[in-house]
């Protein structure tokens, strides 16, 4: 799950602009039968260097069959705290994200 926190003002009245969804820049791919993490660096997908072990994906996620990267944003809900009333709905979003992966 990803939650946008743009559009929220600070004490000086500055309102932040929307940034990119970080889950668009992380993904999974199949490397010799093992699912690995990838990230975008320099405009290209590369192996994620901070965690190099194989990962288990939730049963509800589409499994990559080759080295073509599937972005994590494909699996995760994206919410806007400001426009979707995060104060009232955040716990629902968390429960939904857990249910989406079978927990």
Kindly describe this structure:
This protein has one domain (2-100). The chain is built from one helix and six strands. The chain has one helix spanning 86-100; strands at 2-4, 26-31, 34-41, 44-47, 70-71, 78-80. The protein has a four-stranded antiparallel sheet, with no helix packed on it. A two-stranded parallel sheet has the order 1-6. A hairpin with a 2-residue loop joins strand 3 and strand 4 (44-47). The longest helix is centred in the last third of the chain and has 15 residues, at 86-100. It is flat and about 50 Å long. The relative contact order is 0.24.
Describe the structure using short key phrases.
103 residues, alpha+beta, four-stranded antiparallel beta sheet, two-stranded parallel ribbon, 1 helix, 25% strand, flat
Overall average residue pLDDT: 93
Low-confidence segments:
none
Number of strands: 6
Number of domains: 1
Strand content: 25-35%
Distance between the first and last residues' Cα: 14 Å
In helices, the fraction of residues equals 10-25%
Strand order of the largest sheet: 4-3-2-5
- Distinct helical segment count: 1
Blueprint (SSEs and pairs):
Elements: E1 2-4, E2 26-31, E3 34-41, E4 44-47, E5 70-71, E6 78-80, H1 86-100
Parallel strand pairs: 1-6
Antiparallel strand pairs: 2-3, 2-5, 3-4
Short description:
The protein is of the alpha+beta class. The protein has one helix at 86-100; strands spanning 2-4, 26-31, 34-41, 44-47, 70-71, 78-80. The protein has one domain (2-100).
